[in-house]
Each structure stands twice: as structure tokens, then as C-alpha cells.
């Protein structure tokens, strides 16, 4: 990704947060996560990475499962809100361009996902991607996928995205049909559709979309 792309991308998201245009934020745990979490076969103490986490209540839900949870999010206010609602007072330090907030099993990095390194994360058992890959511009999607794989050693994933006619509406969320997931992750993972439902929520009237949850299993 060029520096220019990166800056434009960050400005775009910071503007949405500043203006409160965060229709992607759900007021409760994601239904697909609650229904299909068991597929990850995680136990308390396992470490899950939540890229582009926003201020999602999925973070709280994963913590309540006893997991070690690490999220990454551009918007510092969103990160601080998560700790506040959990009644946690984080330790905060600066690591290069990232600001790291830590309390107990929860670590959130405020900053650019591409600045996070595998050394900062340590071993990762699973990735939970809800509306993260679909938030990435299609031209840079391969970079995103490569970074996820590099950070986690290709850990298993639950991936929640949308599939719709990209000509009928602009992203984000960008459409993520199976072949696009295959292009990005097919070398490392087998890809299984767990559930697909029709949705209208984040889309303009008249655009049919499917919300889908995928299980990405590392190959051999
Ligand atoms: C569509 S939202 C999804 C948020 C969250 N996963 C949820 O389900 O509510 C995408 C989020 O990713 C953040 N974001 C986008 N690109 C990022 C990047 N390169 N590094 C860190 N955060 C990023 C945005 O600020 C935004 O909050």
C-alpha cells in the first residue's frame, strides 16, 4: 500500500467516527459469532486477534469466554470506549506509531493494523474478522490478507462478510464473494461457508446482499 493510500484510508475512517457515521457498529454481540464460535474449538487462555475491531461488543463477548483478546483499530476514542464500558483502566504505552492499551486479557492497539508486528502479538490461536476484510479497499485486500497470515502464522479464522453486486452499490463494505476470499487466502486455507443470510441493513434500497460467515481452516 502506498503512503498516500494509507493516509486517505485513515482519513476516511476517522471522518466516519468523528461524524458518528458508524452504522457498522452493532449494539450487541454479532449473531453469527455467537452461533458459530464453537467451530474454533478454543479454550480459555487461547489468544484471538480481532483486526479492525472498532468498539465492537464482540470484544467483550470473547473476553467473557476466557480468551486473551487483541484488537486493532484506527480510532483512539473507540478503543478508550471499550475499556471504559468494561470498567477497566488500561496501561497505555506508545510503540512507534501505535498506542497500546492493556488491561488483564484485553489489549487494543490504537493505530494502523499494518504497523502491528508478530513480535508485538505473540502466538495467535484464531482470527475473528467481522467487517474487517470487507472494509479494505479491493486493491489492497491481498496486502491485508498477507499481513493477517504473517501476523498469526496462518491461524484459523471466522470471517464475516457481505456478497452483493458491486456495480449496484459502492463500498465499504466491499463485496466479498467466495472467489475473492479464495484469491486472498486460498493458498493457506480451505474455505467453508457456514451460513448465508439475506440482509438489507448496510445497503441502499434495492441492493440484495448476503451476509456470510466463513470458516478458514489452515491447510495441512
Ligand atoms: C466496518 S468497521 C468494522 C468494525 C468492527 N469490526 C465491527 O464489527 O464493528 C471497520 C473498522 O476498521 C477500522 N480500520 C480500517 N482500516 C484500518 C487499519 N488499516 N488499521 C486499523 N483500523 C482500521 C475503521 O476505523 C473501522 O472502525
TrEMBL record:
It comes from the Bacteria. GO terms for molecular function: thiopurine S-methyltransferase activity. PROSITE patterns: SAM_MT_TPMT (PS51585). The keyword Methyltransferase applies. Gene3D superfamilies: Vaccinia Virus protein VP39. GO terms for biological process: methylation. S-adenosyl-L-methionine binds at residues 17, 52, 73, 130. Pfam families: TPMT. It catalyses: S-adenosyl-L-methionine + a thiopurine = S-adenosyl-L-homocysteine + a thiopurine S-methylether. It is an enzyme of class 2 (transferase). InterPro entries: SAM-dependent_MTases_sf, Thiopurine_S-MeTrfase, TPMT. The keyword Iron does not apply. PANTHER family: THIOPURINE S-METHYLTRANSFERASE. This is Thiopurine S-methyltransferase. It comes from Tritonibacter litoralis. The gene is tpm.
